Amino acid sequence: MSAPLSRGGRFAVLSAAFGGLLFDGFELGLMPLASLSVSKDLLGAGYTSTLGGDWFARYTAALMLGAAVGGIALGSLGDRFGRARAMGVSILFYSVFAGLGARVHSQEQMLVLRFLVGLGVGGVWPNAVALVAECWPDKARPTLAGLMGAAINAGILLLSQIAQIWSVSAESWRWLFNLAAAPAGLGLVVLFLLPESPAWLASRAAAATAVKKPVAPLRELFRPPLLKITLTGIMLGSVPLIGAWAASKWMIPWADKIGGAVQADYKALTQGWWAFGAILGSLAGAQIAAWLGRRLSYFLISIGSLALTLTMFQLTAPLRPSFLPIVFAQGFVATLFFGWLPLYLPELFPTHVRASGSGISYNVGRFATAGGVLAAGFFFTALGGSYPAVGSAAACIYGLGMIVIWFAPETAKQSLKP
User: pTM value?
Assistant: First the structure.
């Protein structure tokens, strides 16, 4: 049995995980903010607003596909070789390939790099969440789960504040991708210096002395008794991801199109209002789950997300006085999911497959998200470039969450499985 980490070791793990997820959020927020500027520059005279929206959908789909693959592959790597090592590799992936985005000369080159960035984006989440959950006592997990969810949105908020100071335009956007390479230093520190999870070390030691050859994590997750749990986790992770990327994120290019002509930093201002609400929502999500129970809280979050997303796209618009407050409210409610998920998903799986199970639950939904974003891009073009129409149609995914949650187990009074 491995000795538990010291207080300093636990805070080192928490700081590294928070930092990895913060810069994860920076990468997630980068293309919604920069996409139209990148397309205007790279397409030149061939650029149209409808084509810009279409490429926004393609970039988002590429990132989601990469994140889905990375979450599964690097989540499995975390179960095999350690959560800290896999998290360090993931941070290096998203930093290096984001930095290379400053050197592209075509839309296709950027598209490939967004997929590669996605590999790292997807790999950080399951390993960071599993590492923190295993290194801290059960009573601290609701608070820590909220911090993990808030870290991603803090990265998006940080990006929006930087973009309000230094403009992101068709003439000046490459600096943003150079900046996105900076977290590589954190990746090296995590890879070589961060302590490993004692629970994972104990699990590996037990597996090494077992008579039976251990089953590969991915194979075990997709056969009884874990198959039903895995499929449930995938459905619960898919709803908020599809809602966020196929619906909510269209508000940024919408704000850029309508508000950018009047106020150059309006898209960054919009993202900042959303991210501030999202930070508070992520912090509150796990606490609400602990207070109301896992199932009731998810159900209520789904209702609120559907109502506010439709309100944002149908009852207001960029530059109206009500737009930014509604963006803030939608960011708060729709990201309650992302404090809920890091609390609930680790509770579903035993230690030896926890990172893989959490990663699959969270990231397989990104395959569906990529499909949803591409479908939204198709409808965006078919509807003549209407941001409200495409955002409202995609928001209906939250209705599925209101149904799926009642098939999930209630884990509120349980400790993490050994």
Answer: 0.79
